[in-house]
Amino acid sequence: MNWYLAVLKNYVGFSGRARRKEYWMFTLFNLIAMLVIGVLDGLLGTAGIIGGLYTLAVLLPSIAVTVRRLHDTGRSGWWALIVLVPLIGAIVLLVFMVLDSETRQNRHGDCPKTVAA
């Protein structure tokens, strides 16, 4: 839960690097929240309004953590736009998100693994 809250607090932080754990824990908690909100929307009959508001609220933090994750793999944040290429783009972005961090300092900062250790 701390990883999720850390990403929300750094919602406009597009510079720097994000470890795999930070990205995937945020994604996990985001998915769980979306499932719960989907069920809540269904029970209340709000036709997805609550889910839409939640999605809008976490849009910017999601983009920011994706850009920081790409930075951690040594890529520009602009690579996030590859998801616009049908099917292939989502697969390529998924591969980038799964790749390990660059263990050395890159143009986006120090490796979060070595700084945290």
Describe the protein's architecture and organization.
There is one protein chain. By secondary structure, the chain is mainly α. The chain is 62% helix and 0% strand.
Summary keywords:
117 residues; mainly alpha; 5 helices; 62% helix
Structure, briefly:
The chain is 62% helix and 0% strand. The protein is built from five helices and no strands.
- The helix-and-strand class reads mainly alpha
Radius of gyration: 15 Å
Share of helical residues: 55-70%
Number of strands: 0
Mean pLDDT: 90
List the topology elements.
Layout: H1 2-9, H2 20-44, H3 49-72, H4 88-98, H5 112-116
Helix pairs in contact: 1-2, 2-3
